[in-house]
Every structure is written in structure tokens, then in C-alpha cells.
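Collaboration report, partner site 2.

Our partner group contributed sequences for two proteins of shared interest, and the home lab folded both. The records are reproduced in the order in which they were received, starting with the first partner submission.
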Amino acid sequence: MPRTPIFAVAPMMDWTDRHCRYFHRLMSARARLYTEMVTAPAVIHGRRDRLLGFDEAEHPLALQLGGADPADLRQAVAIAAPYGYDEINLNCGCPSDRVKAGCFGAVLMQTPALAAECVAAMQEASPVEVTVKCRIGVDDQNPGEALPAFLEALIGAGVKRVQIHARKAWLKGLSPKENREIPPLDHGLVLAMKRAYPVLHVSINGGIGSLAEAKALLDLGLDGVMVGRAAYHAPNQLLIGADAALFGDVDGRDAFAVAEAMRPYIARHLAAGGRLHSVTCHMMGLFSGQPGARGWRRILSTGANQPGAGLEVLDEALRPVTEPLLQQAC
């Protein structure tokens, strides 16, 4: 049977907030977007609309939750359900000090039975699919043994879809940044898991820096690809064109059209009392690799932080990237 791949932008703390997701959606109608990780206790006790609210344009959108208490996760999912997310995702891959202290995130890979219990509890309250994002193992685990055991526990709990970051997480000795770069990638192991568990929908994450790489991994038989920091730093190269390259859609968007399409959103944000930098900080890479990109970044980074900064800063930032085109036209 023909299969439709999933192309997703990974959940990234402090990055994939609602402004970032709206911006990314303008570049790809097909990409599945993910929230930053939100802990179950924060959902239960925090400002729910601030944590869970989103623009309808962001669909398809997944909420990523963090936690290791099945009851808390069940309650958090029940609270989030009316917001209308398309997927609820359990974080079993984050290696930060915060998750280590709370014994969730990547720590859950050490206790597959507890991870399965958490998922089962979430499913009881969720009207949509519950998925899991994990690593290939943690610390001294042998990924060839730990990952299959973890996936089998999830399958036993009814999980049908996982996203696997193809690196180990080192909870001891490496920072979160180092955990994204130092542990070697093992795409082959993720592919082996897809072959070993064909019933499981497997997306791969980690080290995917181009649409050509994404397509090659899909052609090998994986069900989806999840791109992270490459999509954030160079969205014009990873997101613009993704719908055409991976799904065959007709796509005429370019970076200039995306910048123009952001204007009404920015205007609404400013009118509501928001700061320009809160939105434009996610737009720095829009012209990555193009003439004038450095000027675009410099003007946005300095001008958007000024008191009262408005759309005139966006207009000024566009000049360094439009002037080379005007010169070519002449």
C-alpha cells in the first residue's frame, strides 16, 4: 500500500514556541509541528492558556509532555484535550538536568515498564494518538538491546508511532548541547528497528541537514523524518520546498513571500502588547545562505530589541537581501 511519510519539526526547548511554529507553518503546509516540552505538573498547576494555547493555523500540531507519574500525565492530557491538538507526545529523550532531577525524559528509557504505564495512562484521557519520542539508549546501555526492549514495552502499551533520536543520551558528563552533538549517530539501528517491528511507524531524528538526506532516509523504508536545529537555523533550506520534495506538492513560496506573510501576524502581536523580538528572533535564518543574510540578521537582532520597535524594523532588515536582487535586475 502507498504510504504517506511524516515530515516533522522537532520539539525544541525555548525555540518552538507559538511564534516559531506559526512562522514554520508558512513555509510548509505538510510539516507536523511540535510544541516545546511542557511538564505535566506545569499543565496541572500553571497558566494553561499560556502553556497550551496556539493559533489554528499551526495544525497539524502535537503537544509534547514531560513527566513520569502516570496519574499526573493522565490529568495533563485531560486538561489539554479540549485545546484540540492532533497528537500527544511523551518525551523519553531529553537529557537535561531538569529531567534528570525529575526522573523523566531520557531517564524513562531505563524503566521501560514505567514508560509503558505512563503511555497507557495518557491514552485513557486522550482523544488523539499518543506517541513517544526517545533516544537509542542512555549512558552505559547497549542500544542494540535497550532500544528493542523499550520499543516492545511501548508496543505492548498500544503505541503505534515513535520518533527516535538516533543518538544515545549521556545523563552523566554531557550537557544538553553536547548530547546533541557528541554521541555518534546510528541511523542504521533506527532502520533496523523499523525492519524488526514493521507494525510500528518509525520516524528518525538527529543529524538530518537537508531535504535530500530526509528523502534518502524515507527511501530506505523509514516512515518519517524529524528535523531539528537545521530547520531552525536555515528554514529556507529545510522547510521551504519540503512539500514539493517529499510530497510532490506544487509550491511557489520563497523567503520574501514568507516575510511578507508574517507582517499581519506581527502586527497583531504588537497590537496585543507583544515585543517585536519575541517573533523575529525565530526569523533570523530565513535568508540563510543568500546574499545580504548577514545584514538581515544584524538589523533584526539589534533593531527588534529597541523599545517601541515595529514593522519598520522588518522593512529595514529586508533591504540587505533585496538590494542584490535589484542590482541583478539592472
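Second partner submission, folded after the first:
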Amino acid sequence: MKELVITSIREDVVLEQLNVCLEGTLTESWGERVLTFDNALGKGIVRSISFDWGISLLDCNVRFNEDVKIIFRTASVSPIEFVFISKGSFQYSPDNTDEIIDLEQYQNIILAPKRYSKKTFMFPPDEQIKVNFIRILRKEYLKKKHNNVTYLNELLLSLFNDDNGNLPYKHKGTYSLKIADQVKELNSVYDNGIMRTLSIEGRLYLILAMQLMEHHNFENNVVLPESLSKGDIKKIHQLSEYIVDNIANPMSVNSLAHQVGLSPKKLQLGFRVLYSRSVNEYLRQLKLEISRDYLKNSELSVSEIVYAIGIKSRSYFSKIFSEAYGILPTEYRKRLLKKEL
């Protein structure tokens, strides 16, 4: 197991110390620092950007080739961290002890270890991890005009007012697709300069507000329709395998929802987050991808392929294939035979 030790809570120093161990490349533009690495230890990108009032973003997209333990060993009061994992899962220990906590995909997580503890994250080998940490330095944030922390529930208010870091806290809330959707938008900001900075900052505040709202609802036992359980997410993943195996059969949102025991609305939300498409858009795209594979790797006629992917009309198939790939299926096969594609 590889151990990386961080001795600062400042994002710029965190990246520098990570880079000593990861032996990557550090770049900076528009106030955003990016660490890129690709070596025997693994491959990934870690970026950070800080804003006023003690708020910052630490975003990681990494895959390690062996077990990696990152230990934060500082004398300073740790920031309150609002954590959201978009892909994969890893473990957390508040003080590098036998207390191991699983941090899971799509779950709203809030962490604040006790001062002088050794906050530890343990990353498994051969698993892609995408995780966002929104970090708040409580003393700095309380200086912000209209911080309105008094409107928080008693638990979080005590946490924000804990200047000395004497109150360790962890929250593992519900699995929220709504937050996942916003995190995806945050990671898709491609603007430059002031537009990029403002887009990231605005999206970051929105995600933070949603995570605080999830905590409020969790503590008050309010269940929202956009929240999925871990079991719901597994069902949607399993459904994607069922769809591939039964691609020739008629399928609708209602029949698929019944198949996995979810409401049609929850199923649609799940597909929007997991696959960035509605159920029908996902079905159509999958049928097209399978048809393209048949055209390339089988001797089935176009009519046979249309039947094999469960589309009733050959003319409709040709229409959507042309819209997707800019070429008719018959012409696509001809060009493959001539090796023009």
C-alpha cells in the first residue's frame, strides 16, 4: 500500500505535496491549479480552485494501480468537507484507526474530523474514482456578509461555530441524482477566463446549497422523489444488462420500471444521471450501436438486423441511423466492404 501524507489544509500546498508523491505535472490558469499524473502508481487529474470566504473546490478523477492511502496530518482545524462521489467508491477513517467508513457513489457526505486527528482516505486499486470535495474554512466563512448559518439546524450550526475543531462530525445521507446532475454540469464547464471562474463558482454554491438541503431533509426524515437508494442504483445498472439481452423485445418505460420495481419517474431520473439520456433515448442509441456492430461484423441483411434490434419499420431504422451517423445503413456497409470507414 502506498501512503501519501499531507500536512496542510491549503489547496495549493495540498496539490504540491500530492505531486511530490504522484510525480506528475502541475499547471495553473485563471486561479485553477491542475495536477496531472500517469505513471506506475496510476493515472488521473486533481484540480483545485479557491474562492473568497474560505470556500474551495478539490476535484479528483483518478485510478490507482495499487491500494493508496492519503493521510491528512495537520495541526490546523480541518475544513468542513461536502463530499460527492460521481463514480466508484472508497473508504474514510477519521483518525487513521480501525474505524473504517465506506463512502459510496451518489451519496451526500459531510465530513469534519476532530483537530489533530489523522484524516485518512483509502483508495482501492483498479477502480475509477470521480469525487468532488467542497471545502469550507469555518472561520473565514463566518466573516461573509449574510452567511445566514443561524438558519442551519443545530447540528450544522454547532459545526460551523466550532472554531477549535473539537466536534468531529460525519454525515452519510441519501443518494441524490439531483446533486449528481449538477456535479456533472460542474465538471463540464469549458469556458475560459472570467466566464469559467464564474461558472464554476456559481455551480459550486448551487451544489453546496443542495447538499445542505439534503442534510436538512435527512435529519427531518423527508424523502424526496429525486433521491435514490443504493439498491435503486443497482437495479438501474442491472436493467441496462437486461435491455441488452432483450433488445429485440418490445420495451417501454412502464414495462422496464415494472421489471425492476421502480416508479417510471424514478427510472427516468436514474437514466438521466447514469447515462445522460431518457430511457427512450438510451434504448434508441443502444439499438443503433448494436445495429452498427451487426452491419460491421455479421452477414445479416438490413431487414434481419432491424428485426434483431426490435424495430418494426426498416424505413424508420434507416431514418434514425442516418440522423445519428450521417449515412444510410446500406451505404455504411458498402463503405465497410471497401474499407473506407
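Feedback sent to the partner group on the second submission included the following. The two ends are 45 Å apart (CA to CA). The longest strand covers residues 55-64.
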